[in-house]
User: Fold these one by one.
Assistant:
Number 1:
Amino acid sequence: MATRLTIGRAAEAAGCKVQTIRYYEQIGLLRRPPRSEGNQRLFAHEDVRRLAFIRHARALGFPLQAIRDLLSLGDEPDQSCEAVDAIARAQLGDVEERIEYLQALRRELKRMIEQCRGGRIADCRVIEVLSDHAPGEMFDRTVLRSGVGSP
Amino acid sequence: MATRLTIGRAAEAAGCKVQTIRYYEQIGLLRRPPRSEGNQRLFAHEDVRRLAFIRHARALGFPLQAIRDLLSLGDEPDQSCEAVDAIARAQLGDVEERIEYLQALRRELKRMIEQCRGGRIADCRVIEVLSDHAPGEMFDRTVLRSGVGSP
DNA sequence: CCTTGAACCTACAGCTACTGTAGGTGTTAG
DNA sequence: CTAACACCTACAGTAGCTGTAGGTTCAAGG
């Protein structure tokens, strides 16, 4: 028993890169696993589950800080799950805000593109709009910070 | 004539931070403006227009490389605006992809949150879903790279 | 003329969440 | 035994800025 995986296997199991695991360890999101005699990390099943949790949460767009909070809440199974819900709702709110922001961008971009009927750059509406059109308040906010994904 | 603005005024006029202007200069997006005797940058109206162009394009989510391309295209007013259009359409495509991705996230998050009916963390669906649910292929792609906005 | 405070200067560190590289060591199959 | 591959550390780089430290310059008031 007590099958332990090297970092490559763990990465495969959790669907992430080897370096990502080392990174999570470095920032304290994963514990430092025991090492083999030759100094190689050996991950227990529990570590891999934690890693998978992190990856799933990341895939849903949760920032690492939120995941940190979720993980520590997960360690207190008898507490109310109110705080967990709050984090998830915050994430949902964030996603919805980004969607609205991007939809506004899409409208603007479409309008701009549709107005361009080809021809010379001097007459191009795209360039013109970018040169002259003051973007509305809408675009001044920092709604869309960053995304998610594993390149 | 030839009113020239200090960096603070230019930033105000273009709606960005002073450091942002210096950054754009550093990466070669803005020319290095002439300096006063006391070594302070003096921006011409033309520089401010270029800066505003950049800010508008950023507000629409164009990455700096695309803006670089747009700017150099803008310097050739007799060329066809096909390339300009292509950049704008690429940006639109990118925005649309992000929207779809975020809408998928939203569905997942909503589902997860709705299933949670309060109670103890041990029974929390949110934690459970994150622990056990393997995210579909959909979330493995790098669709949403980064956003836009001026914090 | 002198001072004060704001605005400017350079250079560099920091943010998110990784990813990639260099240069070296461990492990395993043939 | 050796080749190939996985692993190790440490650090640099990505995008697009933002913030800080430590020092000048400038304009206005006394």
Number 2:
Amino acid sequence: MARTAGSHGPKTMEAIRKAALTLIYRKGYEAITLRQLADAVGIQPGSLYNHVRNKQDILFDLVHDHMTTLLAEVEQAVPAEAPPLVQLEAFIAFHVGYHITRREQVFIANSELRSLEPGNHAAVVALRKRYEGVLIDVLRRGAADGSLRADDPTIAAYAILSMLTGICSWYQPSGRKSADQLVNLHRDLILRGIVVQDPASLAC
Amino acid sequence: MARTAGSHGPKTMEAIRKAALTLIYRKGYEAITLRQLADAVGIQPGSLYNHVRNKQDILFDLVHDHMTTLLAEVEQAVPAEAPPLVQLEAFIAFHVGYHITRREQVFIANSELRSLEPGNHAAVVALRKRYEGVLIDVLRRGAADGSLRADDPTIAAYAILSMLTGICSWYQPSGRKSADQLVNLHRDLILRGIVVQDPASLAC
Amino acid sequence: MARTAGSHGPKTMEAIRKAALTLIYRKGYEAITLRQLADAVGIQPGSLYNHVRNKQDILFDLVHDHMTTLLAEVEQAVPAEAPPLVQLEAFIAFHVGYHITRREQVFIANSELRSLEPGNHAAVVALRKRYEGVLIDVLRRGAADGSLRADDPTIAAYAILSMLTGICSWYQPSGRKSADQLVNLHRDLILRGIVVQDPASLAC
Amino acid sequence: MARTAGSHGPKTMEAIRKAALTLIYRKGYEAITLRQLADAVGIQPGSLYNHVRNKQDILFDLVHDHMTTLLAEVEQAVPAEAPPLVQLEAFIAFHVGYHITRREQVFIANSELRSLEPGNHAAVVALRKRYEGVLIDVLRRGAADGSLRADDPTIAAYAILSMLTGICSWYQPSGRKSADQLVNLHRDLILRGIVVQDPASLAC
DNA sequence: CATGAATGAGATTTCATTCAT
DNA sequence: CATGAATGAAATCTCATTCAT
């Protein structure tokens, strides 16, 4: 990681954020120390407090920023007036694309919720619920117009989100699948399932 | 939580395990202290060391026990000689059923891998790979005999496992869905997808 | 100061109290560090927390103990049924005697009130008011029966208490005045004042 | 408290002094931080160093200024050639008047001596001794000419000073006693004591 | 087998102070 | 002369772990 030793000005805050992201992603919020973080930034532990109120704020900033960006972007990515199936495909493509380019943020936002203090926790959970709501709405409209099969749109949404977010835990940009391939793979799985439809059973 | 204050004999070890399970599930391994654990058990922190070598061992025991049980049971639950589709359905039913009755173990085994020391980490990851291997094998055989559509059985297996394991993070035994309903819901989603197949498009 | 290195058992708490008394008396509560205190006791700083909840508690214990003892003893020292003048003399003798043998406690209880957290502060101030009340009552009764001249018993009591407590700030047990001499000196000053009454002016 | 936000020019130094006086009076020298002081002044902590060499100097300035002013004024207030009794009355009036109008300075000068570094401490104690010397001299001369009863003029002086200075710790300008009343009350106490002289015992 | 007390390492945080801009 | 950011030292407190009793 870049070491901006003795860094000055507003760059330091950015360096702290970047270093915190990597460190928390790799070791977890509780497991990292501010000494390690300061080392990674190239300053003294105490100097962190010129930019941050306390350790908790570092985590909250990271998670909160991530969630607001995610929300802002999903609303642009999913066309408001399109049919549910189109929206669903857009959502899948957006979610997979966004998540594999921000694996750290996503992972932290999911796994370190527990480490947020009550107030912060509530704020983040609220944002998360809004994001989940986007998908739930799509499924609900699809169920209503008969294009999607979702007896329980909420549970189906959770299932889809779990599946897609899980990609983060094994995906490597250098791996053998491109982002597009991943999107297609998961879109097919979600839309059509894994069973090969027996043509005979479908014959007239 | 049951507080076995001043517990004696071999019960103490069991009480430690139970308390550790609950505490780690709720707060995370790094976040709990042995003092909290001792409190929950009803003994002094120092007394823990009559039963356990150190904090790490508590976590490893929990995770390792869980993984070996999981493996032993999945092999009994999935019929060895059945066709892949039948095996897949058996796997889904087993996985969902097992996971919702052991939410804490599952959650810990997934989220606290990071907190395991290298040796322990490797041991658990190996067990996990064997468990994933069961599903991957099923998908692979299904792809081979044309009954399942899985271009990439590994990724499909990860996707399915992520989806199913995600249930743990929101499931409440007192909720509105029974275990059976959950199994059906997820089986349908995995096998047939979410899109309603247009009969017209399938007509000859 | 005695250094009970590696001290064990209930003696440690006593050693902490004694060392804290001396250190706080000499440097002030805010100025001392727990490292210094631990050094004086002969243990590690962290070990203090086996006996004490935090730094504030050390101060509060000291002050609170002092005030309760003071109150208990003053009630025994001042005869309940005696005439006010006798009571006043008893109070002076008691106060001077008690204070010069416990200079540290007295000084701390007066000068470190500011360092007490609100709750603790209130508790100590309440005790202090009760002690002051003893003297105020004596003066009030003396004013009532005409034996003492105290237009404002409260202010007079404060004046007397300030004068007597001030002794602590310069008294040395090895000094040239005995405790008895001090008592007499101050009793005379309080009772008769400093002016030599001109016999002529009193003649009939 | 007045907040001279972003103050400029020579006013800043004055603002620092005023804020320091109030803060140290309320919380004590060791307990305040330069951040708090800077806040109160309306500047950044680093900016303090454009006006002050360090924290210690702030305290020393305050105490030293106070002591020199006190000394200068007491010499004007106590008539050099008057009889001891008249001088004593003048001293009492001056001391009470001066102290109740500068409660903060007086309190700090008495309670924060401990926080002065050796050199500064010595300087202030020397000034203090000179001030005490004024009263001691009066008493000594009174004892010499038979007008005052002071076996030990030093101790008597300490006693009187303690009594008078104690006023600062409870006096409120808005209270029920005027400054003049306070002076009279304490002068009577010091000169004539608290006992009502039994006329009978004085009769010829 | 439990306990109370000790340890030593280290964590987060605070603070006085410095200095380039 | 003010500022923002850095430093380095230190402070309080926590924690896993050990061990005599």
Number 3:
Amino acid sequence: MEEKDIIAALSALAQDSRLRVFRLLVTAGSAGLPAGQIAEELAITPNTLSFHLSHLKNAGLVVVRRDGRSLIYSAEYGRMRAVLGYLTENCCSRDPCCS
Amino acid sequence: MEEKDIIAALSALAQDSRLRVFRLLVTAGSAGLPAGQIAEELAITPNTLSFHLSHLKNAGLVVVRRDGRSLIYSAEYGRMRAVLGYLTENCCSRDPCCS
DNA sequence: CGTATAATTCTATTATTCTCGAAATATGGA
DNA sequence: TCCATATTTCGAGAATAATAGAATTATACG
């Protein structure tokens, strides 16, 4: 995982709406949620949500599959773990810390 | 740690110069580094660096102390750990993951 | 095929962030 | 006190991000 991927993931999560979307998807588990339901639960207009989802998708933090007319988004836990791994390794000291 | 603090920390780190500054400070340990030396090592103009350092400071990720004419910045590991803790707890599934 | 539903892409507007030159503040030493 | 050093704050310009209305694509079903 390169630094630019880390920055992409961090900026994807460093925004109120997107962090809430991601947290919601985390609670939804691997079943995921259709875009419309995310929009409704979080009171975000569909086009704005779509903008945020594409950010999360580009950062590799969510994946999407189609089910009929719905697009189901779900959290990509592996990616998130990789980001946390990077931060733990590179941003958390060789002093007495973080283990 | 509240969500707005997490967002502050994430956006502080979600920027190339600031991530490099923070990583440099992490390697410097508790001794820290004076602003001028950070600017020199990373080839960032002093005023721009100051802008970035204040971001990191507002996010609680670095602290500063004065030593003569120099201001010594150092990484706040505890804060970083708290951020990682939050992300692990809230953004990392109750599925088989992240442990 | 025609219509309805689900979501995205397009376009424009506003807001925020980044960068850097210039000016200001704080400290130390002659 | 006067000057040099270290760093920050101010002010302005350029770049990037967020929001939402309108138009478009994709699927389902009568």
